[in-house]
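Entry: Amino acid--[acyl-carrier-protein] ligase
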Amino acid sequence: MESIQPTPTFCEPLDDDGLAEPTFLDRLFDQGLLVRTGVDGLYGRSGAFESVVEALDRLIGRLGAADNAEVLRFPPGMSRPAFERSGYLKGFPNLAGTVHSFCGHEGEHAKLLACVEAGEDWTAGQKATDIVLTPAACYPLYPVAAARGPLPAEGRLFDLQSYCFRREPSLEPTRMQLFRMREYVRMGSPDQVLAFRESWLERGTQMIRDLELPLAIDAANDPFFGRAGRMLANNQRAQGLKFELNVPVNSVEKPTACLSFNYHQDHFGTTWDLVQADGDVAHTACVGFGLERITLALLRHHGLDLAAWPEGVRRVLWG
């Protein structure tokens, strides 16, 4: 695998008084690129920050344009029954987010308001709705694709983008609870989806190089929950089902996954009765781009003043 190119250490330096300099997150707030909301990992974004996200989204679209993927955009919520069937709760119950609403009568409403007035917990009367927060941009896609019937002989390719939610509050700016993911998803035979993944490994690597960022591509695993999850993670890594393109953002020692390349084998095909033209269970693969993470990597390495970024980087993003 490729190794990380030389890059400065990210230890926050000490000032003349021996005090730690502001962290990267502090500087993002001070510059107004991110906006505090009072919740770790939940931030507003400035126009400058969004201009980079939007430029990256357009760049990714240009990279995949020749493939003629079907474009679909889902909201950041999905059907709870579909979410339950997906199996997400088996592997990541700690990351899931549900949507609850008040479903009571007038008397219960009065109790709710009394709790708010008293500063007490008012959520006891909330009930789960039929919507959950989308954990990855591809999750709403599989039941939709399966409902169309067998795949054509050439399989199918989709272009997705969505806000996603994972409950992991953190002071690392790259670990947001609500973030945007751009994905391409390939459905078809094992050969078709593996060729797709290899193609995007090359494209994604070249994109990050063109943005003049240091990188490493490493075998990886999803953060499965619990003891059984550790076995799943070991199997995933041993079989080479997941690769990540990592860029140092918070530190060199623990670089940040900015792109992921995933081969699901027949997991989603079996789950959703998604079949190939010949009746065999379909295999799937996806490439995911963390739009906020790549933006933060650019800000970390090229500075917080977008106008001062290297000309080559600005040309790649904005022409």
